[in-house]
Amino acid sequence: MTDPHRQGMQLVDYIHDLIDTHTHVELYTVREHGGWVPRRHATKAPALLDQLWAGDIPSSTAEEGPRAGYSSKPAARLDALDTAVRIDLEVAAWITDLGETPPLDGKAALRLLHSLVPSAEAPARRAITADVRRWWIRARVVTGWDSPAWVPDNTCPQCGERGTLRVRLADHVAACTDDTCRATWDESTIGLLADHIRSESEAEKQPKAGPGPCWCPVPKPVVPDLSRLCPRCGSARCRHALGARLLDTIRADRERMGA
């Protein structure tokens, strides 16, 4: 399911979704008269900041068609409130840097920041736009308005922590939940994250070193290739690398015999 009006969003669009009620559109199909018929489901969505402060995270049970209702989850509520606080602090920091006093209300502060962008220097304008887009991505990921987040069993390419990635496949956005990282990806960078997940998953399918210390036999054996290296010491002659290479040979022989 995708939301077609998300294509080519500008700064004003990101801010609108963060502070104003907006229309959320989901595309899905139903089977009628022996064929599949496209349908559109439009929903009036509360402002993303309102959703974060309310801590009401949508249910993750619906995969297609009209979305399910809200259901509170303690962990999700804390993550939502944490995200709301961080956005408020970062907005206030930008307003202060631009020489103004930030309002106490988060929405008013974001509106003020938007009004200050045209008069800012070009580097500041680019940085503010990038931050607003990051806040929008983070809010969409945390609130889960589009679809349940996919949590891959992979490390974050920015901080190296495992299990912290949250990916919204329908919206092509992702975020890291690690407190010191908070990296985000959108449609322009999600491909890099996908490549990282794919390559890491492929690498982890390779034989792992067994228990015990590294040991390289003496005299050193002749190694025909460097296709397997010990992940601990990096040697192609270590018993871990030799064992993995032997497994490759056995598998290849079995495949030839079964052919």
Structural commentary:
Strand 3 (165-168) and strand 4 (173-176) form a beta hairpin. The model is unreliable at 1-5 and 59-72 (pLDDT under 50). By secondary structure, this protein is an alpha+beta fold. It has helices at residues 11-19, 48-54, 74-97, 106-116, 122-143, 190-204, 239-258; strands spanning 22-32, 35-45, 165-168, 173-176, 184-185.
Helix content: 40-55%
Tell me the span between the first and last alpha carbons: 43 Å
Number of strands: 5
**Beta-strand fraction estimate:** 5-15%
The class by helix and strand makeup works out as alpha+beta
Could you name the ranges where pLDDT drops below 50 across 5 or more consecutive residues? 1-5, 59-72
Report the total helices. Answer: 7
Q: Looking across the biggest beta sheet, what order are the strands in?
A: 3-4-5
Secondary-structure element series:
HEEHHHHEEEHH
Approximate shape: elongated
Compute the gyration radius: what is it? 25 Å
Main pleated-sheet profile: 3 strands, antiparallel
Mean pLDDT: 77
Which terms summarize this structure?
259 residues, two-stranded antiparallel ribbon, 7 helices, elongated, disordered N terminus
Write the layout of secondary structure elements.
Blueprint: H1 11-19, E1 22-32, E2 35-45, H2 48-54, H3 74-97, H4 106-116, H5 122-143, E3 165-168, E4 173-176, E5 184-185, H6 190-204, H7 239-258
Helix pairs in contact: 1-4, 1-5, 2-3, 2-5, 3-4, 3-5
